[in-house]
């Protein structure tokens, strides 16, 4: 990376985390240069009029003035997770690093509560591959609305049943999306293929907190990719 590109990248990094500071040592590791080089770059930015300031103390570092940063972005947690899924499909392409950087900036600019919720949702998505099949909107929002769902579901034999479920996670397989949920009928975790769900009713009931353990998914862990917003 040449110096001009690095100066621009420094500003964008500080903008992404503002008003929090980044230490010179952290920035040096991020851009693979010496601490002294970072200090010279920061000095050059300051002399050019960029509002970069040094915060003293053990947790201090360099920060960008808040007036120079972007306002919070009105992306919803679901929209941020959707972008992370799209990013997953770019893995191995020349654009993956740039797209990942864009996503980090987006999440950093979101309202803190929305960003936390987006990270929580992303942690409940596992991908083996990213299916192209579309999911009905009420199912797609299953993790964000945090309500008990009443679904009509056909098993592999075609037998229909009505279930009340507490959504826990999504798993993307080569051909289908699966919704992992606590099934109140079976009193255990069950995996529902989304194309077999013919009807969805969102109830007013908020389910109790439940954690999904890796052993409850019948997919080898080394085949799954965790969705990340970082």
Automatic annotation (TrEMBL):
| The protein's name | Transcriptional regulator
Record-linked InterPro entries: CBASS_pafABC_assoc_protein, HTH_11, WH-like_DNA-bd_sf, WH_DNA-bd_sf, WYL_dom
What residue stretch is flagged as signal peptide? none
Q: Which residues form the WYL domain?
A: 137-201
Q: Where is the Helix-turn-helix type domain?
A: 6-62
One Pfam family this sequence matches? WYL
Domain of life (superkingdom): Bacteria
């Amino acid at each position: 990376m040449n110096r001009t590109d690095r100066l621009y990248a420094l500003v964008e990094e500080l903008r992404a985390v503002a008003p929090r500071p980044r230490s010179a040592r952290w920035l040096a590791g991020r851009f693979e240069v010496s601490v002294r080089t970072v200090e010279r770059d920061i000095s050059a930015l300051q002399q050019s009029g960029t509002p970069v300031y040094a915060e003293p103390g053990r947790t201090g570092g360099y920060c960008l003035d808040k007036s120079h940063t972007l306002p919070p972005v009105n992306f919803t947690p679901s929209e941020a997770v959707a972008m992370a899924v799209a990013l997953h499909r770019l893995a191995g392409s020349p654009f993956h690093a740039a797209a990942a950087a864009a996503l980090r900036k987006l999440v950093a600019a979101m309202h803190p509560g929305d960003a936390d919720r987006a990270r929580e949702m992303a942690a409940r998505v596992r991908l083996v591959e990213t299916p192209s099949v579309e999911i009905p909107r009420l199912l797609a929002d299953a993790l964000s609305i945090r309500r008990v769902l009443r679904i009509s579901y056909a098993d592999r034999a075609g037998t229909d049943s009505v279930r009340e479920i507490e959504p826990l996670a999504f798993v993307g397989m080569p051909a289908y999306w699966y919704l992992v949920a606590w099934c109140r009928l079976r009193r255990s975790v069950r995996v529902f293929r989304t194309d077999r769900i013919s009807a969805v009713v969102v109830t007013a009931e908020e389910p109790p907190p439940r954690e999904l353990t890796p052993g409850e998914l019948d997919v080898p862990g080394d085949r799954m990719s965790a969705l990340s917003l970082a």
